[in-house]
Amino acid sequence: xxxxxxxxxxxxxxxxxxxxxxxxxxxxxxxxxxxxxxxxxxxxxxxxxxxxxxxxxxxxxxxxxxxxxxxxxxxxxxxxxxxxxxxxxxxxxxxxxxxxxxxxxxxxxxxxxxxxxxxxxxxxxxxxxxxxxxxxxxxxxxxxxxxxxxxxxxxxxxxxxxxxxxxxxxxxxxxxxxxxxxxxxxxxxxxxxxxxxxxxxxxxxxxxxxxxxxxxxxxxxxxxxxxxxxxxxxxxxxxxxxxxxxxxxxxxxxxxxxxxxxxxxxxxxxxxxxxxxxxxxxxxxxxxxxxxxxxxxxxxxxxxxxxxxxxxxxxxxxxxxxxxxxxxxxxxxxxxxxxxxxxxxxxxxxxxxxxxxxxxxxxxxxxxxxxxxxxxxxxxxxxxxxxxxxxxxxxxxxxxxxxxxxxxxxxxxxxxxxxxxxxxxxxxxxxxxxxxxxxxxxxxxxxxxxxxxxxxxxxxxxxxxxxxxxxxxxxxxxxxxxxxxxxxxxxxxxxxxxxxxxxxxxxxxxxxxxxxxxxxxxxxxxxx
Length: 528
What we know:
By secondary structure, this protein is α+β, with helices and mostly antiparallel strands. It has helices spanning about 125-135, 150-170, 170-180, 185-190, 190-210, 215-230, 295-305, 315, 360-375, 385-390, 400-415, 430-450, 455-475, 480-505, 510-525, and strands at about 30-35, 45-50, 55-60, 70, 75-80, 230-235, 240-245, 250-255, 260-265, 270-275, 285, 330, 335-340, 350, 360.
C-alpha cells in the first residue's frame, strides 16, 4: 500500500486466491444462496455458491460508497514471508545485531521487553514461546547477523504456520474456521516447484529439524495452501504482518475492485468498505494484486502464488480501461505504441500500432525487470535520482506506464516534505512539477482505483498544497486574475474535502487518518 512500502509498485497488501474458490465478477455463475449466521436483511451482502467458483459475496441491495461491509479480527496473524526480521509481538522491524533485544526464553528478536504484543493472542504467546524455546538451536539462535536473507525468510515463514497448527490443541474451534478455507492442495501438488518448496522448507523442517514428528505432512501442506490462497497482508505505522479473517476471504477478485480495506493498528481488525456504488446482486470484489501494476505482472503474480489467470475486464483490454499503464514506446519506429495483442495470452506477442515491430513476452518481462531493478536501486528520498529515472526511460515507456507512475508517486510524496525540498523553499518550477505529477497520477487512479480509496485520498491531499501555493504566488505577482484565484481556491477546498472524507474512514492511530484530520483542520482554517 502506498506510504507503507519503499516503492508502491511492489505487490502490496491485498489478499490472493484461486479460481476454484473466488473468481472474476465478469463471469456469470448460476448461484445458490448459502445460509448466513445473521438474518439476511441485516447484512449488506449475502453468500452465494456456484459449482465453478465456490462461495462468494454479492450485494443484497444497492450499496452506496463508504458502506461498512465487514469488520472482524484475525483468526491468525504472523510475520510476512520476507528476509526482513520483525518483532514477533508487534511486527515492527528489528535487527539481528548482537545488541538487539531478544525473548529471554526462546531467543527470537523482539522490539523490547515492554512490547504490547507479548503474551497477547495476536502476538508472541506463551505456547509459541515454549515451542521455540525447546528448539532454540534450530530456530531463534539461527537468527544472527550471519544469517542470510534466505535463511531469515525461511524461519519467519514457519511462524504463522506453527501458530495455526498450535490452534489444533489450544483453540480447536478457531482452527476449524481456518481448516474450512480453500487450500487447492491437489492443484498445488501438480506444481512441482511450489510443492517441493513447502516440502523442504516447511514440512521437513518442522518434522525433522524441529522434531515435530506428530504433525501430519498433508495437514502442514494444507495450512500452507490456505495461507497462500486466503491471507491478507496488513500493516500500519511501520508494522507488517499477514492475517487470516473469518469471512473477508470470500470476496471475489477484480483488477478494478468495488471495495477497499484497511486494518486497525491496535486490534489488526480488517475494515472493508464499498469504494463506489455497487448494484444489487453485483459481486463484491477486491484486487489480490497491486492495482497499479501492469497486466502482465499482475496476472503473473496471481498465477504464480494463487494458481489462477485473471480474466477480468481490465486484463482483457490491451489499453487497460484507457489507463495504458503497460504501454511502451516502439523501439523500431519511435512513433508507435507497443501493447499486448492478446492480453489474456500470457506468452503472446506485443506489437506496435504503427509499424510491423513485435516483441515477445519473455523479452518484455526481462526489460521490465531490468527497469524495475533500476528503480528499486534508487533511494526513496532521492529526488534527483527519481527525476533522472523518469528522463532515462521517457523514450522507452509511455507516460502512464506503471513503472514511471511509481517514480512519480514517490515524487508526489517527497516534494515538499524533505530537507532541501520543503514547500517554502521550493522553486515555482519544482512546485509545478509536484502538481503535474499529482494530476497525472490522480488521472490514472480515477480510472483504476476510483471512489473512496486510500490512494485517491492520499494523492488529493498531496495535490492541494501545490495548487494553493501556486495560486498565492500567481496572485501576489499579478500573474492571475482574482477570478482565477477564486477558482483555484475552490479546487483546493474540493481536494481537501474529498481527502478528508476518504482518509477519516481510516482507523484512528493510522498515518492516513492523521492526514484526514489534517485536511479537516485545513478546511476549518479556511472557514469551510
